[in-house]
Amino acid sequence: MQDEMGFGGGFAVVVVGAGARGHEIEEAIGLAGGRMLRRIAWEAMPAELMRQVAQPVLVADARGVGEDLLAAMLPRLEATAAALDLPVIVCLDVAEIDVVAAALLGVQAQLLCGPSVADLIGALVLARGSGSTPMLNAYAREGEGERLRRLNAEVARIAQALAELARREADAPAGGAADVEDRHSAFRAEPARPAPRADPGDAGAVRAIIRRRRMRDALFPGNLFEDPAWDMLLDLYAARLEGRRVSVSSLCIAAAVAPTTALRWIGKLTEAGLFVRKPDPADRRRAFMALSDAAAAKMHDYLAAANGSDPV
């Protein structure tokens, strides 16, 4: 049910799950300066976490886990972590976006879609600074000079580890397992057409705006124009006009950025009151995203003001 593993001193980490790519999680924990206390099976997670004495970082690996099991366990993971004040990192693939987002989107959890070791290191460094981990308590007991020395040593060590990872990825064949470039939606530019007027009540006109934004990616490197917040606002506004529901995974595609980045922005825009999450009444494992009424009104006003221009 669980494995013991130590990486020396440092902040504690408990891993939930971890299948075929568990070795990447272990490597990231070590490079980030942590130590893995144990690995817990998903089925045993609620009882095992409630017996936890320390305040570890939780890394839950949802990749390849069945939807029914995730739907049952993720709310309990969130509730237990909230009760014990534990930072949470969840690793997932595109196939798990909807079921994970239904349970954890909008809570204090880092959602990493298809993470590299470097992504995991960054998330672990953020997580260990978000709670009262043993390492932070140790820093508090030290003098200022010693604390700064240890912090500087940690920063230097992590920077060296990331540099080594970057070197390994640069040496790997393009498109291989170590290729961690953001994945963007491909779009082939259509022949130039007159720009439609930005009718705030015309879903077709809003979709045309979205298409023109994607045309830029066919002519220039796509990451030059990344603007996931605006792309998702446009997509949800068009969907509202069409009377169509949008899943979290579909909204991630509309964002035209890496899924992890899209999920982070969905969380931010939900916290800002622009997006609302609506559970699927037919399937508790799913949730849909929509514009709030206030956000929809602002989009209407913007497109009405831009009527006759090109509001790309």
Describe the model:
The longest helix is centred in the middle third of the chain and has 28 residues, at 144-171. α3 (67-84) runs parallel beside α4 (97-104) and α9 (228-242) crosses α12 (293-305). The strands form 2 sheets. Strands 2-1-3-4-5 form a 5-stranded parallel β-sheet, with helices on both faces. It is built from 12 helices and 8 strands. The chain has helices at residues 22-31, 45-50, 67-84, 97-104, 117-128, 134-141, 144-171, 203-219, 228-242, 248-255, 259-271, 293-305; strands at 11-17, 34-40, 57-61, 88-92, 109-113, 246-247, 275-279, 287-291. By secondary structure, it is α/β, with parallel strands linked by helices. The protein is 50% helix and 13% strand. The chain has 2 domains: 11-171, Response regulator (Rossmann fold); 203-305, Orthogonal Bundle (Arc Repressor Mutant, subunit A). The model is unreliable at 1-8, 132-141 and 175-198 (pLDDT under 50).
> CATH first level of the largest domain: which class?
Alpha Beta
Range of strand content: 5-15%
Q: Quick one: biggest sheet?
A: 5 strands, parallel
Shape: globular
- Low-confidence runs (pLDDT<50, min 5 residues)? 1-8, 132-141, 175-198
Give me the CATH architecture of the largest domain, please: 3-Layer(aba) Sandwich
- With strands numbered from the N-terminus, the spatial order across the biggest sheet is 2-1-3-4-5
Rg estimate, integer Å: 22 Å
Number of strands: 8
Secondary-structure element pattern, one letter each? EHEHEHEHEHHHHHEHHEEH
Distance between the termini: 53 Å
Total count of domains: 2
Level of helix content? 40-55%
Average pLDDT confidence is 81
User: How many helical elements?
Assistant: 12
Query: Helix- and strand-based class?
Result: alpha/beta
CATH topology tier name of the largest domain:
Rossmann fold
Q: What would CATH call the homologous superfamily of the largest domain? A: Response regulator
